[in-house]
Design a protein that fits this description.
Strand order of the largest sheet: 7-6-5-4-3-2-1-8
Largest sheet: 8 strands, parallel
Number of domains: 3
Structural class: alpha/beta
Helix content: 25-40%
CATH class of the largest domain: Alpha Beta
Length: about 500
């Protein structure tokens, strides 16, 4: 439609040189690029950039956009000047221009044709607040005058709304549909499976809510290879942006050259997600907080062990469409601890009584451990302890108790609240502390343990272990465990480096 490639890099910067640098980076990945002229700081900078662009004579499909403020852009000049900039962009090598419906309404079509007749028009409508009630009416207005293509971008509060928008594009030629918002992030990528699939990806600066960066889109999701045959997997949670499951699982798919993608789904409404499984063709998904227990009511059946635990962390979508649940946290905890302590006969304290804690408790009980449970809500601690034949312990008693191991199965200390710890140093009376949190690798709890000379174990091992088990259940193949571990560790190291540089910069201020 706009170019042979379905991924459009978005180049946006306040100055001409910055635009050119980002343009150069975009060209390393795709030949379809949107130039956000409205992000340049003033008319003079727009003209300067277009002169530099014209001198380069690039061989690429370039889309010029100079969106005005009333349409959600940054350009505050007059419409006549806006059209002049777009005309100059066509002379500088752009073949397409994006013209928002707000400008079209106020401008005589004869003037648009006189100034921009040599270019191909992408007529757009943006709804940053909510999905329009009548999409058909929007389409009819955009199609007046027969532009070469039309685009509707709308904020979606549910996957159901995102599906509705994407279905519109699949039914019409030369129509681009862009679901916006965090809930629709996965849907933006899944749009690439469709006939008219098209995705915008910023090189640096995000220009709309829910965008995935160009670098991440290619390196993590291999979005340039997504097609109608690509199998879809994912992880559901709220929040979900912190999860490194997409990095880990997609690395495994890439290593074995599997035509599959694993996406993060921000799910606030489980019913909305479950009703979208069939239409998006989802083959399986991981489950994280807060849905590990809630998902049970939406399953057709589950593994007996998962039923006993009362929590599910992965689901297989069978060919009949039925949902079958498993709990691989069980596998992850055993693979992590059995390498480090003899489990049979060991006394282990579990912090927490939620879905993750239940998996830990059942796994360790089956392995022959004597399990103790301490939780913020004593009633839940007692219930879990009773379920596994263990003992509930109040926090005030911890200083006088001793354990072979303490396992944190709460989210306390998880990114971004990394300064918190579920226990104080004087409460760590044990030989080993294991934190199921993997982000950050070294939590505050583990730091306290190391200061006391206690062996500290990061949640990375459990995370990789449970993820590899999920991958094997979904695919029926042996997981490339080392590849998965390396992908997670590299991602965490990069994050730690960024956080360290950020802290240093704040100190210098």
């Amino acid at each position: 439609m706009l170019g042979r490639e379905k991924i459009c890099a978005v180049v946006a910067a306040p100055d001409a040189r910055g635009m050119l640098r980002r343009l150069g980076r975009a060209l390393e990945t795709t030949r379809t690029i949107e130039l956000r002229l409205d992000w340049l700081r003033d008319d003079a900078e727009i003209e300067r950039f277009l002169r530099l662009l014209k001198a380069r004579r690039l061989r690429a499909t370039l889309i010029a956009t100079c969106r005005r403020r009333e349409a959600g852009g940054r350009y505050s000049g007059k419409i006549a000047t806006q059209l002049t900039h777009l005309s100059e962009a066509l002379c500088a090598g752009c073949t397409w221009y994006d013209l928002e419906i707000e400008t079209v309404r106020k401008c005589p079509p004869e003037l648009i044709d006189a100034l921009l007749g040599e270019g191909r028009q992408l007529r757009s409508a943006h709804f940053f607040g909510r999905m329009p009630r009548d999409l058909g009416r929007v389409v009819r207005e955009l199609a007046k005058g027969a532009p070469q293509a039309i685009k509707i971008a709308a904020q979606c509060s549910s996957l159901g709304q995102a599906r509705k928008l994407l279905n519109l594009a699949s039914q019409r030629k030369n129509t681009i549909a862009i679901p916006m918002g965090e809930v629709a992030q996965a849907a933006r990528i899944l749009a690439l499976r469709g006939r008219n699939g098209f995705a915008y990806a910023p090189v640096d600066n995000a220009t709309a809510p829910g965008q995935t960066s160009l670098d991440e889109l290619i390196k993590v999701y291999r979005a340039d290879r997504i097609d109608s045959r690509t199998e879809v997997y994912g992880v559901i949670g709220d929040p979900i942006g912190h999860s490194l499951s997409p990095v880990m699982q997609n690395a495994a798919f890439a290593a074995l050259k599997t035509n599959a993608v694993y996406l993060p789904f921000l799910v606030r409404d489980l019913k909305d997600f479950v009703s979208s499984i069939g239409e998006f063709g989802i083959r399986g998904f991981s489950v994280t907080l807060p849905h590990k227990e809630r998902i049970l009511t939406h399953l057709d059946d589950c593994d007996p062990l998962a039923a006993r635990i009362g929590a599910v962390n992965m689901v297989v979508v069978r060919r009949s469409g039925k949902l079958y649940g498993y709990n691989t946290d069980y596998v992850g905890i055993l693979r992590t601890l059995e390498k480090r302590i003899p489990l049979r006969g060991s006394r282990v304290l579990i912090l927490g009584a939620g879905g993750a804690a239940r998996a830990v408790a059942f796994a360790l009980t089956e392995a022959g451990c004597s399990v103790c449970v301490c939780a913020r809500r004593p009633v839940r601690a007692k219930a879990l302890a009773k379920a596994v034949g263990g003992q509930a312990i109040e926090r005030r008693a911890l200083r006088s108790e001793f354990f072979d191991a303490i396992v944190n199965a709460t989210p306390v200390g998880m990114h971004p609240r990394t300064e918190s710890s579920p226990l104080e140093a004087r409460e760590l009376n044990c030989r080993l502390v294991f934190d199921t949190i993997y982000r950050p690798r070294q939590t505050q709890l583990l730091k306290l343990a190391e200061r006391r000379g206690i062996k500290a174990v990061s949640g990375v091992e459990m995370f990789v272990g449970q993820g590899a088990a999920q991958w094997e259940i979904w695919t029926g193949e042996r997981a490339p465990v080392e590849t998965m571990r390396r992908a997670v560790v590299v991602a965490l190291q990069r994050e730690e480096k960024r956080d360290g540089m950020g802290k240093l910069a704040r100190k210098r201020r």
